[in-house]
């Protein structure tokens, strides 16, 4: 949905994130007679046809051409510059997690603290949905968007379920494709960090031909390929170690190498630095796993788009479109931990270590025992765990678009969108049975260097295979009619009506091989499959009450086959008493339907995001008598997750109420200021109780901590044999797993202000100068972990899984003269209280400088530097990601990065 006039005029050549097209159009002083010649088009957030940007909802517009000149090379990077976005899901998050290397946008941060995917922001491509990413069917992967084919990004900063249906709780991000393109354009980008690592190379080709008016057809195509090299944690000082300020336990693991035998560690007191170091007490060794992870994985993105239109008759055309996207990433984390039996007869059994009766694995008698012990060790000789993530996205559609009369437009489309993802292990993941056999027969040494036979046994145990597959499919049919019912004294009475049918299917499979990989954290029983269909009817009415005041009323009814119906209305007002002053406001309800993964995921096992002390066996960080610190202190704990369908339960949709109102003024010529207040309330939150909450109040949630003694030794269902940690029972009774089943939780309330400003100096002999600001301030952010529970305040602090930034802004100055253009921009995030409450994370400010030259016909050259001052991310002690010392979800680990872009158009 286009937001420009029929001349394609762009009125925001300064940094488009700041204000650009929409606000400039609001204060266009062109006489009414001249405005009547403008094309009436659809604006994101409304189905009505309007002139220019006349709308009651706040919309931010980003021109992709400007972003590319400033060094942005991916859709993920473009959305990280949006001040309303507080997404915790990006390419850095894929390190150590089975995310499919996806990236998501989370307006207002409605999903961040609960550790959810960004499932409350709707992502559209040319006004229509894409299939959600295959691994959770919750949100669209931004890597599925073909950036080379996108003209601009329209961001609706308001709830829009009455217009678009589910997911549009926090807002809508609509990627608008290029509509008019003739010729061929080649582009190449190169970026290199001054400290090395993470280099980017990008190439794109776009082309188009034909004119509907003259030739009766148009064809447009785009190809884009981007590759980024890996950046390891050891390449940056702020992430090179998990031992920060003497805090050994937080960023290290009790699974060390050399290993320990039932708490006896032969490498003490020195351990094996720098990878293995003594803990604060000197009583055990800790492995510095942070040294072995990737800050950024290696990644390749390839996208392609082909669009065509044919004029069937005057005022009637047929459009066809096909999108293909492919995303690959390779991630690395520390070598796998493991528990294995070691007989006393092994040549590597430590001298001086006590032995006891352990199962005799060489005997066919299940009751036979031999002297030995249980080894807890990190399999460093097998190398870092390396995973490969492959995701593809396809969308094909046919659309019929036409006019009934001069004031009525219609369109109807049918299409299919599919997302597929596969995760594979490449190295460092070993067959647990073969490793156990190697320790039992004395070939593998868990306490030091390997013999040739031991290393050969480890290499033979390496597994290279797919471990997870997922597919999400969306089939849709829609139709819409929009036009004017009547001409009132104040203007046209406008109406838009439409219908939509969708069928969703999703399947997720964990392959059996995953059960043999102890360090993977996946359960081979974690498969799910489900489907549903939905039908919707929606309408929107625009009523001009006076020449300066108009009312918009919208409503939508959705019926889902799995949970029933929902009805959501929206009321909007727009008052413009003069060309220099606008007031607007809206009130709407909304909803998010539970995803198919939410509903149908069976009970399965993974690991908690953070590491914790057992509240009974490591109270205060000191292991209880008889308990091993490497088992009960500072450890990730197995988590049992699953949808309610696995236990016969059900989920209700999340419901929301959104209020917004604001004003835009032009106090003096060429100065535009805007402020919008927003308030969002969400109930019936869907998720699992955060593990941080469970361990923070272990007395209250004691029932969520299931110990080995509470499980049967064998039989059907969940047993002690499913958990390696239970090999320590009955010596001591550790936690087998934490129960975190998906359920409806409590409420979330958040409010704040969006502010913007644009100052454009009058053109002169020295050129054109514009200065712009866009910022978001969160007044309040509080949520309940469970229905009826106390509200937790998260604004300006790290809570459960992520922080909520009080203030974010972008500030930029753009100068242009003749073929030259120069942009200096600042991106800022305020500081916050850390996950460790006694520490405060500092504010984060980056400066970017770019310059472009177009002095030769059809050639544009742009150079720049991102993070001009080479600013490191602020120190944080967060434990929700594998990277430690900084937060990879919100900061740039590359440092100062030089950029070069060349663009040539034939």
UniProtKB/TrEMBL annotation:
Subcellular location: Cell outer membrane
GO cellular component: cell outer membrane
Keywords attached to this entry: Cell outer membrane, Membrane, Receptor, Signal, TonB box, Transmembrane, Transmembrane beta strand, Transport
One matching Pfam family: Plug
Domain spans labelled TonB-dependent receptor-like beta-barrel: 388-868
Membrane topology: Multi-pass membrane protein
Major place of residence: membrane
CDD domains, per database record: ligand_gated_channel (cd01347)
InterPro entries, A to Z: Beta-barrel_TonB, Beta-barrel_TonB_sf, Plug_dom, Plug_dom_sf, TonB-dep_rcpt-like
Homology family: Belongs to the TonB-dependent receptor family.
Protein name: Iron complex outermembrane receptor protein
